[in-house]
Amino acid sequence: MAGGDRHRRRPSQLGCIEANAQALALYAALCQEVGLVPVVEPEVLMDGDQSLERRREATEKVLHRVFAHLYAQRVMLEGMILKPNMVLPGLACARQETVDEVADATINSLLRVVPAAVQGSRSCRGGNLANSPPRG
User: Read out DSSP for 52-117?
Assistant: First the structure.
């Protein structure tokens, strides 16, 4: 396959975001339809060398699209739990921010994008930043 053909077959970043946002919203709507509380977990992967600022932008873009699809599916935001990613620089990024900088970026992104009707949010990570070995 020629190089140009290979790139044409690769899904676009926006297409992936839209497909995942739509799937999360459909899952949430189906859960609520049968009386379950959905845990909606949009995620920005940690690989790559993007800065904290670039990851903040990506996280906010993903959350905007997820909430647009949740509204379209008529998901009751008060009846769901959001499990967002922490806003972290990429694993290969030369500058790794402090715990306080990561916390500020994460909280500010959530305050900017998540509607007030969402009453439950849970952020989970395999470890905690204070005890993690230096990355990078």
Answer: HHHHHHHHHHHHHHHHHHHHHTT--GGG-EE-PPP----TT-S----HHHHHHHHHHHHHHHS-TT
